[in-house]
Structure formats: C-alpha cells, structure tokens
Amino acid sequence: MNSHKNARLTFVRRLEMVEDITKRGLSASEAAFAHGVSAVTARKWLARFLTDGVAALADKSSRPAKSPRAIRPNVALAIVELRRKLFTQSLIATYLGVSKATVSRVLCRAGLSRFSDLAPVEAVQRYERDAPGDLLHIDIKKLGRFSDVGHRITGNQAKRTRGLGYEYLFVAVDDHARVAFTAMRPDERKDSAESFLREAVAYFAKLGVPVRRVLTDNGPAFHSLAFGSACTELGIKQKFTRAYRPQTNGKAERFIQSALREWAYGRAYATSEVRRAALPAWNHFYNWHRPHHGIGCLPPMSRIKRSRKNLLTLHT
Question: 176: closest CA among 207, 140, 199?
Fold first, then answer.
C-alpha cells in the first residue's frame, strides 16, 4: 500500500474503525467522527469487511478489470514479429489494421523502435598481449585551459573560463601490464605526436620493456610521415584502429576515463597549470600503487619484471 502523506485511513486505521463498529458497539457515524472521515466512508469499509473479510480493507489496483480498446496480446506479438522481418512501422500498422501510435508504443516497449535495434549485438572481445611491450595503446584527450576553478567543480555553469585555448593529454598504455605513460602537449599535431612517441619508448626502455607495436586511432598526427618515420626508426610496427570502433583502443580509452575522474576533475585546481603539475604524481600512483581490476586488483608495475637498478631509479 502506498498511502499519501495526508491519508486519513491506512490499512490499520480502517481495521480499527471497522472493529469500533463490530466489536466496540459504535455506530457508523460515531466511528467515522473518531477517525476523521464521513459516515459514508465508514459504511463503505464496513461493507467490504463484511463481504470479504480483513483482506478487503487493503488498497486495490485502480486499473479497470476490462480495457476494450487495449491491444490484444496476439496483435502485439505480430507487431514484433513483423518488425523483426524489417517491416516499417507504417507498413505494420496497415497490415494489422492498428494505428501507427499503437505500433510505435509496442515497438518502444520491445526495444525495437529503430532499425539499428534489430542488428545483432557484437560480442565483447577481450584480449591481452602475452608480454609487456608487445602492444602500446596511444591516444589523445583535449582539455580546456582555465584560470579559475571551473563549473565541473563549482556546479555554476555561468562560471566558465573562455578564450584560453586547450592543451592535450597524450597517453600510452601497455596492453599487457597496463602501465601508463602520460605527457601534456600544447597541440595534437605531428611534431607533438612524434616527440611523445619517443618519450614513451624511452620511458618503457627504462623499465626494461622494448616496445614492438603501437596502436593509434586514425588521426592525422598518427598518419603523418613524421610519426611513421619515427616508428620505423625505433623498430616499431604501427597499427590503426578500425573505423568507428573506438573499443579497439579500449585500454587507452579506459585509462583516460580514470585520469579524468581521479586527476583532471578529481579535485579543485586553481589553474590549469596547477592541474598539469599534479599529473606526474597521479601517474606514479596509478602505475605503482593503484589496484587495477583488469589484472586481479594488482598495480600495473607488478606485471613488469624489472632489474633492481631500474626499480630504484624509477621508484624514487
């Protein structure tokens, strides 16, 4: 029962009112006055009690027993079956003699309003390379510069910093270990992409991990001659994601989500320069201390075999 806040009679009070009449000898008018309702209401609940017992005092559904204009179940099933055969909504309405609104309502409930809903759902294909360095996911995230605490923290949409431009977060995530290397750049052009690749390869080399392949999206910076030449010079095979399939580069995409939530928007920064200065500390925490659910709640660095020299160099 879902009584409103000003209800005079709940189930328990209805029972008390009926018992006042049947057991305590009050008249219907007296019982109604005691419970703050009319005598007509008291007699209504008394009649229900005498007819069907205590259960009749509970609230009942207001839905009518019969709905002559409601669509029949077999017609609803026929609408869905015709939709699965790629019939348009107007054609289904014509064939079955029902309105377009009825067809639309049934298909909406069945989750088949659009033809794209009929396409088979692609199975999630999870993969992981056998060793660190076998594949490096590289991606870019554009971030706005700001000179004051922004609306994402304050919640004030009117308080926006405009006209300061953007800066770009480059990320490189190892497919096997999930160790990430990050760097900020003023743009996302070919020179920035090339220099980031060289820095990322140097970082993983300090870990004793030679990078063999890189996977990027189809942005112009990664298709540039400068980036391709850098890959050739470093002995790296370059691969591209499938068109309109960002999940191919999913480990980098997932890392960017974590970075935005925990670093970029995780606290209030006075300026974007302060935010940029906090990136190395958060990146270190992510690699060395933060548990990663994709690898058994262990930190990413636990998956890289390091020499003692590299361990001491990088951990300090």
Answer: 207
Q: Residue 65, exposed/middle/buried by CB under 10 A (0-12, 13-18, 19+)? A: exposed
Q: Which CATH superfamily is domain 136-315 in?
A: Ribonuclease H-like superfamily/Ribonuclease H (3.30.420.10)
Angle between helices 190-206 and 225-234 (to 10 degrees): 20
What ranges do the domains of the chain cover?
Answer: 11-57, 73-116, 136-315
In the predicted structure, residue 30 carries a pLDDT above the cut 70: yes
Enclosing H/E stretch for 137 = strand 136-144
Tell me the DSSP string of 195-244: HHHHHHHHHHHHTT----EEEE-S-TTTSSHHHHHHHHHHT-EEEEPPTT
List, as one string, the DSSP characters of 69-108.
TSPPHHHHHHHHHHHHTT--HHHHHHHHT--HHHHHHHHH
- State mean pLDDT over 5-22: 87
pLDDT digits (tens, 9 = 90+) for 99-128: 999 999 999 999 999 988 888 766 666 778
